[in-house]
Amino acid sequence: MVACGLACWRCRWLLPLLLGLAIIMGIIALAGRGWLESESSPYVQQASLWESCTRGEEDLNWSCISLMDYGWGRAAAATYLVGFVILVICFALAVIAFSIEILRFNFVRGIGGLLFVVAAFQIIGLVIYPVKFTEDIPLSGDNMFSWAYGFGWASTVVVIGCAFFFCCLPNWEDEVLGNIKPTYYYSSPERAPYLN
């Protein structure tokens, strides 16, 4: 017998925990200044979801411009932020859903559907940003999309995985609620002479 699989009532907090992890990664992506960075020294380029900063090779001060002055910058920030807000709502709904004794499985499937919407919004923002950034912002030196941008994608991947699990969880309703009696396998002495 499996002590604690995904379809187990004792492990019901695994999915909300994963959503909480996705929220933490989303916060890092929203606040991080490492969406785009210079790949090697001298580090002259740095960008976040909100602004792009450059400096000269000998200069220590960053000169920043707001990406909110561009339509695509507002669109990328808005779509990622809307997805993040819906993700926080889904987390709260998941905690409520798994806190009550009588789990409403249609409610859980609805959370899964909302998580697919979150993933769609976040993917749109994560695709708009690099495409339009490289077209409209002059880049100097070798640059790479860096750690904060990676956290944005990591959050999206976790959300997609949770969405599938939330949508499929009602298929194991009886196992999750503990409504299935355990099956015992035994052999009669005639069929297992070695037991004598």
Describe the structure.
A hairpin with a 3-residue loop joins β2 and β3. Mean pLDDT is 81; it is low at 1-7. The protein has helices at residues 14-31, 71-99, 105-136, 147-168, 173-177; strands at 36-38, 45-47, 51-54, 63-66, 143-145. It has a 5-stranded antiparallel sheet. The protein has 5 helices and 5 strands. The longest helix has 32 residues, at 105-136. 54% of the residues lie in helices and 9% in strands. The radius of gyration is 24 Å and the shape is elongated. With 196 residues, the protein is of the alpha+beta class. The chain has one domain (19-169): Butyryl-CoA Dehydrogenase, subunit A, domain 3 (Up-down Bundle). α1 packs antiparallel against α4 and α3 (105-136) runs antiparallel to α4 (147-168). It holds the Pfam family PMP22_Claudin. It is a multi-pass membrane protein. Keywords: Apoptosis, Cell adhesion, Cell junction, Cell membrane, Cytoplasm, Membrane, Transmembrane, Transmembrane helix. It comes from Upupa epops (Eurasian hoopoe). Belongs to the TMEM47 family.
